[in-house]
Amino acid sequence: MVKAVCCSRDPEDIQLPQSVNNRFKIGISGNPDKYVPGGVYAVTIRGQHIGGYQPTFKSFMLVVEPSCSHLSPSENGIFRHRNLGNFTLMDTDIAQYSNHCPNAITQMSSVRKTEVNVTWTAPPPGSGCVVFRATVLEDNEVWHKDDGSLSLVLCEDVQKNEFDQLKFDFRCCACDDALYEMTFEGLWSKHTHPKDFPQGKSLIGFTDLIGASHSSDFCFWDYGNLASEGLKLVAEFGDTHILEGEIMDKSEHIRTIIKARGLSYPNVTGKTYAVFRVDKQDHLVSVVSRIDPSPDWITGVSGLNLCLKNCSWVNYMELDLYPWDAGTDSGITYTSPDEPTTPHQTVRSITSSDANDPHSPFYDPSGSDVQPFARLYLRRQQLFQKECTNKEGESENGSGAEPSPVDCAVSEWSKWSPCSVTCGVGKRSRHRSYLDKMRSDFRACKRTLHEQDICYAAQTLCSSPNNHKVQDSVCTLTEWSAWSICSVSCGTGEKIRARRYKSRRDYERCSHCPNPPELVQKIACQGSGGAVCDEKYGERQIDACPDTEWSLWSPCSASCGKGKSIRERMPVHEVKPAEKVATDCSEAYTKEEKDCVGEFPSCEMTPKMYRGEWETK
Questions:
Q1: At 461, is the pLDDT very low, low, confident or very high (cuts 50, 70, 90)?
Q2: pLDDT band of 596, cuts 50, 70, 90
Q3: Quick check: 586 pLDDT over 80?
Q4: Helix (H, G, I), strand (E, B), or coil: what is residue 232?
Q5: 367's torsion region: left (phi>0), alpha (psi -120 to 50) or beta?
Q6: How far apart are CA 375 and CA 319, in angstroms?
Q7: What's residue 397's pLDDT?
Q8: What would the DSSP string read from start to end of 438-464?
Q9: Residues in contact with 466: Cβ distance below 8 Å, sequence separation at least 6, in sequence order
Q10: Which one of 260, 317, 433, 506 is most buried, counting C-beta atoms within 10 A?
Q11: What are phi and psi of 297, to 5 degrees?
């Protein structure tokens, strides 16, 4: 932790006064004007290009201090006790921690350099404004300090989010377990968010929800944190598989895996359901879904506490859900082309005040609030009575004290395993172990012993026996429908059959792959009145809105317990949105719904049960 301590930052053994600076600057990744408490930022000192020349420097000192101009008179006298966050070195060959300034970074050697990079973890809420200052020594005669772009002020982002107020600041003392039903309702429409609402209604919606009920020792996404690889894939593509694996890797902190079907046209403003269980250790809930289409925008909740201070559980709760930027893509509009953010920024809420580009759908010069995209309902359905086994104040390891670092000492990480695939994207893992297993078991240590990461094989694309087929596994298709009746009652017409992507959200992505699959097939046919039309049959009668056959029933909307399953059929012209018809077929779309049971008949789930290892009680 960096705390305010005053020290001299003038270069030693140089008598000349400092020069006016217009050659060097301090930069923060993403150029924010506020910091998110606990957020991680890349801080850079860099020479500014002048024509084709970039100035270099031999030594420097970077420090973070309280911004006294933002302190009240009473605060100014005690500023030295404020938390200013943490510096972390990115390249120990270039930089090191200062020996005489505990809140400063300085050079490792006098080798000339064009820039230096460190990371800074912002302090906790209530820490106020900070200022980064730098001293830069070009040579033994020219040096700069604090002036111009060598000072940069960041103030705390004090914006409040509804579920921030519900995060716990106490130890959960509930003895009973509780079962909750979660309802996710879409609110996003051209009426609630009219500015630049995406064209092509069949492409909009919310991707499958993924989440968990978990302990306070685990968090898979949060305001101010960097997105993991799994969250990045959810935010950019709606792919939940890697994030699900990341959650399961922390199964010791998980009570229930939460999965629910996404909402897509024509049910974007509909509802989807899931159930989950909580207990006194795993009393937080987090879920996330991608706003589709978008560059990397998500919605959901993180670390929502359902435990009450009176040792009971929340009975009912409604939460409006707002858009968040995952910090991995810099696109401005819903349909912006890919523009990776390098380096990644922290997850942040999207507001009208920070959307400074008029092209942004959230841009509003008046600064009015962004309307919610969805709403979350949490209803407690059942309590499972249990006896409290731990006395108040006794730790979970039974000793009344937290395990010491010696008790939980671990070995070095092993080398990463080979990538699990020879082509495309796979997984790799590494592990470590406790140095004293008996002691660590006795103290109930909970350090991470196994890590998984995404990896890319040397062969980036996987070959297929049929290169005419789309490679991407997300581009899966339904079975062919049955052939339609002949399009004419007499003479020569055609029969049609169709198939479509199982997820309509995949159409835009998959149809642009090389050699995309055929979605509609036609064959010639003769009407029931014969090859030649007579007056009885008159002119050829063509159905202006031919329907496909019913789709397969969708997977159950609930991951466990009761849910809903739907099947659909639609006008053939909607299978290929690019094909236009003169007739309005909007009323021809039909849908059927039925009750179903999720993957698990019971919602009393644990990570072991999720993996198929059913427990008996």
A1: low
A2: confident
A3: no
A4: helix
A5: left
A6: 6
A7: 38
A8: HHHHHTT-----EEEEEEE-SB-S---
A9: none
A10: 260
A11: -95, 135
Q: pLDDT over 70 for what percent of the chain?
A: 72
Q: Are the CB atoms for 414 and 452 separated by under 8 Å?
A: no
Q: If you search the block for the tokens 């932790």, which residue do you land on?
A: 1
Q: Assess contact for 266 and 589: CB atoms under 8 A.
A: yes
Residue type, 405: P
Q: How confident is the model at residue 395 (pLDDT cuts 50, 70, 90)?
A: very low
Phi, psi of 149 (to 5 degrees): -85, 10
- Given the structure tokens 């009219």, which residue do they identify? 194
For 140-169, give one letter per residue: b (16+ CB within 10 A) or e: eebbbbeeebbbbebbbbeeebebeebebe
pLDDT digits (tens, 9 = 90+) for 270-313: 999 999 999 999 999 999 999 999 999 999 999 999 998 888 89
d(CA 354, CA 565): 40
**Residue 20 host element (H or E):** none
Q: What's the rounded Cα separation, in Å, for the pair 214 and 256?
A: 7
What domains appear along the chain, each with residue ranges and CATH number?
24-156 (2.60.40.4060), 162-389+601-610 (2.60.40.2130), 492-596 (no CATH)
pTM (2 d.p.): 0.48
Q: What is the DSSP letter of 253?
A: G
- The token pair that represents 155 in the structure block: 């103030």
What number of other Cβ atoms are within 10 A of residue 272's Cβ? 23
